[in-house]
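Our example copied in:
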Amino acid sequence: MHNADYLGPLPENLQSSQQILLGEHPGLNENVGALAVRGSLDVAGAGGEGGDVVLGGGRLEVTVHTGALDNLGSHLIEEASQSGVTEVWAQINTAGATQEEVLEVLLGEDGIRHAYTELDGLYVRIFGPQGESWWSGVFYIKG
C-alpha cells in the first residue's frame, strides 16, 4: 500500500464513509481509511454500536495506536471487545516505532499473537504510520 492509487480511485459512494473514519480516528492514513471501506456495507458513525465498518459477516474496527508498543495487546483487546468485531486494523503511530519492533511484539517468543485468549481467532492487520502494510494474520492460542 505504497501508492494512493494502487486500487484505483475510491468510488464516490464510499468517499463519505472514508471521511467518517478519518474524522473519528485522528492520524489515520487516508489509504488505510479507503481500504477499510472498500466492500463495506456501511460505516457506523460516532457512538455507533460495534465496530466501525459493517462487513457481510461481521465488523471491522479501525484504530490508531499512539502509545507504547507494550500496550498494543491491551489496545487490541479493547477494540476487539466491541459488538460483532471480527477484524481489527491498527495503524501504529507510536513515535519512533519500526516495523521490526512491532513484529517482535506481535510474533516474538512471548508475542501477543499467541498470548491473549480474548484475541483468539481474530483477524488483525497492522499498518505503519504512512499506511504501509506491516503485518496481517489471525491471532491464535498455541496449544
